[in-house]
Amino acid sequence: MTTSGTILVIGATGTTGGRTAARLTAAGHHVRAASRRATPVPGAQPVRFDWYDPGTFGGALDGTDRVYLVPPLGDPDPAAVMLPFLRQARAAGVRRAVLLGSSAIPADGPGVGAVHRALPELFDQWAVLRPSWFMQNFTGTHMHARSIREHGVILTAAGSGRVGFVDADDIAAVAVHALTDDRAPGTDLVLTGPQALGYDDIAAIVTEVTGRPVTHQPLTYERMRDRLAGQLPLEFAEMLAGMDRAIAEGAEDRTTDTVQRLTGRPPHSFREVAERELTRGG
Ligand SMILES: NC(=O)c1ccc[n+]([C@@H]2O[C@H](COP(=O)([O-])OP(=O)(O)OC[C@H]3O[C@@H](n4cnc5c(N)ncnc54)[C@H](OP(=O)(O)O)[C@@H]3O)[C@@H](O)[C@H]2O)c1
């Protein structure tokens, strides 16, 4: 694919978009880094973009031929704002779209599933990244990371269910491949790390790596929902607690070879990520 156009990275200040923008600029691509306040991103051209303000779409799309899509967060119907944007993007000359979805939501699923279903009709060149849960949930600003730092505990309704946790940097590496390779994947890609781990395993690894005791405290679905509902709308709290319950039932207990296949190297383990992001010298 030609490298003359601009790649618009939506969510460029976030966990996957930031890493994707960094990798693209390091490889010499021209990147427009979108966020609500046009926050500067090294090596990229910042642009103001808000899913809920269509007036920001035109400026973000000007000269763009490829786009990385992080959906509006916590919106139960992201298609309502994303599909008008994607139609405008196609009319403006965008030829390739790479959507960040989730392993938990297939094409026939709710929410971002509707955007997934529409993508192949809008763009000849497309991919949907469907990562499992992020390893950065334990190292960044996510509630698990905060709870680890503040209370030495991880609270879930996932029981002993296992998850193929994936490094956001590996997601970004796949995103770059999907955005810049001569051939777009033209499919969805379930992304995991090298092993499925339980939250007990995560707590044990964080304890070993940081030297500070961390435990996993399993809660019932109802207790988890009620705790989350203290900070989030009830509908969203129910959805998140429900995802934990699905994990307890084995829904995320899998690994795939996608990162290795697309990037040519194995995905990072949780221990590697914890050593990199939770220790000063790591
Ligand atoms: N965490 C997990 O374990 C996990 C697993 C699978 C899938 N996912 C999916 O990953 C997605 C989150 O991706 P992420 O972690 O890369 O993002 P993130 O770190 O949560 O950051 C969100 C990004 O979106 C931007 N943003 C927020 N509201 C916006 C709006 N109204 N208009 C435009 N931009 C907006 C933010 O920028 P500003 O605030 O600067 O505007 C930020 O750059 C979610 O869709 C989630 O379903 C997460």
From TrEMBL:
Lineage of this protein's species?
Answer: Bacteria, Bacillati, Actinomycetota, Actinomycetes, Kitasatosporales
The record ties this protein, via Gene3D superfamilies, to:
NAD(P)-binding Rossmann-like Domain, UDP-galactose 4-epimerase, domain 1
What is the top-level taxon of the source organism? Bacteria
Quote the PANTHER family the UniProt record gives: PRESTALK A DIFFERENTIATION PROTEIN A, PTHR43162
> Which protein are we looking at?
NAD(P)H-binding protein
The record's section on SUPFAM superfamilies has:
NAD(P)-binding Rossmann-fold domains
Q: Which InterPro entries match?
A: Ergot_Alk_Oxidoreductase (IPR051604), NAD(P)-bd_dom (IPR016040), NAD(P)-bd_dom_sf (IPR036291)
Q: Specify the NAD(P)-binding domain's residue ranges.
A: 11-111
